[in-house]
Amino acid sequence: MAYVEAVNSDEVKGWVETVTSLGPEEIRGGVRERAEVPLNFTLPDGVKPKKMFLDITVSGAADKWRVFLGEFSVTKVFKPVMQKEYKGELLSKFVFDVTPISHIVVSDPTLRVINESSSSLRLLQSSLFVFYEYPELGELRYSYYVTLEPHKSFWGPLDPQRSGYFYGVFRARPRAEVKLKVGDCLGEFVVEELNEVASDCERAKSYYVEASEEVIPLSFVVGSYVLKLPKIKIEEAEYSDGKVLLKLRNLGDDADDVVVLIYVPGKPLARTSLGKLPSGDEREVELKVEASKGVTGAIARVIWVKGKMTEVAAEKFVSFQAL
C-alpha cells in the first residue's frame, strides 16, 4: 500500500465513536471568514474517552489559520502532517490529539476554523475519532490511519477469532464505485467527491477495498473486536383484560436498558422501559393497551440498549380476545 501514516494503534476495553462532517465548504481568504462545524456525539453515562483525535482535510493552502474546538484554540499555524497535489488541487491533512482537552470537546464539540490568510481554503472533511473505555461492552483492537495517496485497491489482516470492523472517509474525483469486504461480508458504495464507507462482520480474518477508479482513503479505522451483548427472549406472551403480559429472559450479557413496544402497523399502543436487565435475569412485564374494535392482535417488540448500541432482540405476535 502507498504511503499511509498510522496515527494510533491500541486496544481499548470499549468501543469507538466516529463523527464526520463532509464538505466541501469554502472559507474565503482576506476577510477572516470562518466556518463552524458541529461534531455532536454522546457517550454512555460515566464514560470518559481514552483517546480522541480531530482529523481535518482541506483543499488549498493558507499562510495562517486558527482552529478551535469549542472555545479552545487547537492551532494557529498551517502545518499539515502531510500534503499532496492531486488532479489540480493541493490537499492538506491535519491530525490533532485532543485527548487532553476531551472534557471540553464533550461539552462543546463544535469545530471553528478561521482563515486569516489571503488564500481561500475548502474544508473537505472534519472528523472526531473517540476511543472510549467501557469494559462492560467488550474489547476493540484497532489501528487508525491517514493518507493522501490514491488507491484502486488495498487490504489488511484482522484477527480471525474476532469480528472485524472498518470505517473510512474516501475521496474520489469525480466518482468511484467501491467494494468493501470485511471477512465474508461485502458492502458496495458510491463515492462522489466525498463519502463515508463502513462495514463489520463476524469472524473476519482480513479486509479488502477495491474501487472502479482511484480513491483516496483520507482516514480509516480498522479493528477486531469482541462485544458482550444481551440476548433477550420472549418466553411467554398473552393478552388478558386489556393488558399484554410478557415474560422476558436475558440469555446473553447484561443490558443497560430494555424497551418494550406494543404496536400494530403504523400505530404504537404501549411502550415501557425496564431499565437494567442483568445476564440470566427474568422479568415479567404488564402493559395496558387500548386497541380499536376489530383489532385481532398486536406485535410485541423488545429492544435492548447497551452503551451506544441498540438492537431489536425479539418480536412476537400477541393475539387479542374479541373486543
Automatic annotation (TrEMBL):
It comes from the Archaea. This is Uncharacterized protein. It comes from Ignicoccus hospitalis (strain KIN4/I / DSM 18386 / JCM 14125).
